[in-house]
């Protein structure tokens, strides 16, 4: 029977979560890497959150009533982020992933999103080829890093919890660095209480929605990002993503006990500006 694509539903969480875990764990095992998702329960929790979030679009692929895979598009900010796109191991290499990608790309086009971005595991050459073949351009390599809290402070850079009154200042920092803002994600982080800002010379010069795999940070300078990392009590999920080209930040993190678990590729379609500052992407971008 033909593959059918439909919107995701809340009751898809268990099946899509299981497939998400099996897909990521399988490809990681093939390359002797630890899975980025530690368990089916953890994957289901992530998928359930995304299926129920009003700012995230979801699509599910079915064949004969059986779920074959899913994909998501984070629409909380003007530039949209793809993923996770996952396909059941038994259905891989049959065009399901391509259909799921084409669906979210069409969704982005219909919404006139200025750009689409994603991160993919560097060891997964098939997914790299798929995305490149669909028009995504490689931008840079990210190092996923995990380890014990660093602690300490960066002189001249105060880190404090963000408040609702800081939202526009955070958006301004992001616009200065990236040319766009990610206000929807910052607003979510303010609601959950995970957002924090750096203050330098009596003004906000950086922020983080959290220090984790699913969060991002932006700063006018590397010192802003160092201060945010140093203040974190832990690094959520597989860890934080540090641009490998930022040698000063990467080497500082290594000296302070963080270790690289894998390398990931940032890929984009449409609007992209070379960063005019420092940043940590989320796994979306």
Automatic annotation (TrEMBL):
PROSITE patterns (UniProt xref): GNAT (PS51186)
Keyword entries, A-Z: Acyltransferase, Transferase
Annotated PANTHER family: AMINOALKYLPHOSPHONATE N-ACETYLTRANSFERASE-RELATED, AMINOALKYLPHOSPHONATE N-ACETYLTRANSFERASE-RELATED-RELATED
Name assigned to this protein: GNAT family N-acetyltransferase
Gene Ontology MF terms: acyltransferase activity, transferring groups other than amino-acyl groups
Cross-referenced Gene3D superfamilies: 3.40.630.30
Residue stretches making up the N-acetyltransferase domain: 3-163
Acyltransferase keyword on record: yes
UniProt superkingdom: Bacteria
InterPro entries according to UniProt: Acyl_CoA_acyltransferase (IPR016181), Bact_Acetyltransf (IPR050832), GNAT_dom (IPR000182)
């Amino acid at each position: 029977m033909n593959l059918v694509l439909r919107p995701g539903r809340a009751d898809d969480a268990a099946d899509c979560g299981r497939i998400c875990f099996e897909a990521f764990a399988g490809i990681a095992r093939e390359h002797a890497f630890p899975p980025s998702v530690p368990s089916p329960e953890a994957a289901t929790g992530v998928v359930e959150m995304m299926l129920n979030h009003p700012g995230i679009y979801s699509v599910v692929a079915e064949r004969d009533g059986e779920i074959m895979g899913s994909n998501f598009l984070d629409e909380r900010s003007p530039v949209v982020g793809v993923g996770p796109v996952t396909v059941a191991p038994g259905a891989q290499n049959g065009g399901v992933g391509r259909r799921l990608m084409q669906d979210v790309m069409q969704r982005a086009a219909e919404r006139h999103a200025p750009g689409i971005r994603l991160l993919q595991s560097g060891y997964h050459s098939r997914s790299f080829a798929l995305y490149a073949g669909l028009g995504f351009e490689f931008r840079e390599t990210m190092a996923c890093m995990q380890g014990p809290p660093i602690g300490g402070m960066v002189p001249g850079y105060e880190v404090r919890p963000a408040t609702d009154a800081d939202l526009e200042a955070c958006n301004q920092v992001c616009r200065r660095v990236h040319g766009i803002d990610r206000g929807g994600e910052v607003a979510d982080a303010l609601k959950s209480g995970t957002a924090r800002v750096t203050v330098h010379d009596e003004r906000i010069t950086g922020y983080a929605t959290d220090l984790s795999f699913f969060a991002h940070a932006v700063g006018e300078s590397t010192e802003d990002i160092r201060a945010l990392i140093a203040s974190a009590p832990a690094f959520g999920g597989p860890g934080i993503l540090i641009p490998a080209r930022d040698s000063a930040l990467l080497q500082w993190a290594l000296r302070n006990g963080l270790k690289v678990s894998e390398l990931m590729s940032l890929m984009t379609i449409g609007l992209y500006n070379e960063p005019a500052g420092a940043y940590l992407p989320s796994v979306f971008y």
